[in-house]
């Protein structure tokens, strides 16, 4: 193989390129699953993913109706369109599941995530961390002479961008909630 082909990667006619050209592309989908809030429901939903080798990028769950004992599970996953359809169908067959919504295809949705960042630093790094936090509208929720804890909310991409900027400034720990999402509009 020529140096040019090595620099650009394997040519699409290479014997080493094992990708199926007819294979569907992977897509990221946000699913909202309304379930009964009872013991074992989350385990059954997660078991569906792990048992079939599906990946979960983000998972949040909380009770949304205290009187009706109903919870909402928000799952961000990736797969081909046929795999996503299969996931939705299988989720819908689990008995305590009331509704499955694919927020990615049902229309515009709002996605937000909360993250906490512990950043240690002094001098210019400390000043730069505070400056960037202001730009990103992150709040200082704890401060010592050697460190800060920042709280930021926004899209997963915004949280990722903030993390990328904080790493060289002394980020030592991060905690993320996962995606919470709602469809936009009156319905």
Automatic annotation (TrEMBL):
Catalytic activity from the UniProt record: 2 pyruvate + H(+) = (2S)-2-acetolactate + CO2
A Pfam family matched in the record: ALS_ss_C
Source domain of life: Bacteria
GO BP terms in the entry: isoleucine biosynthetic process; L-valine biosynthetic process
EC code: 2.2.1.6
Keywords: Amino-acid biosynthesis, Branched-chain amino acid biosynthesis, Transferase
SUPFAM superfamilies membership: ACT-like (SSF55021)
GO molecular function, one term: acetolactate synthase activity
GO cellular component: cytosol
Keyword Thylakoid: no
InterPro entries: Acetalactate_synth_ssu, Acetolactate_synth/TF_NikR_C, Acetolactate_synth_ssu_C, ACT-like_dom_sf, ACT_dom, AHAS_ACT, AHAS_small-like_ACT
Family: Belongs to the acetolactate synthase small subunit family.
Subunit comment: Dimer of large and small chains.
Task of the protein: Catalyzes the conversion of 2 pyruvate molecules into acetolactate in the first common step of the biosynthetic pathway of the branched-amino acids such as leucine, isoleucine, and valine.
Name of the protein: Acetolactate synthase small subunit
Organism: Psychromarinibacter sediminicola
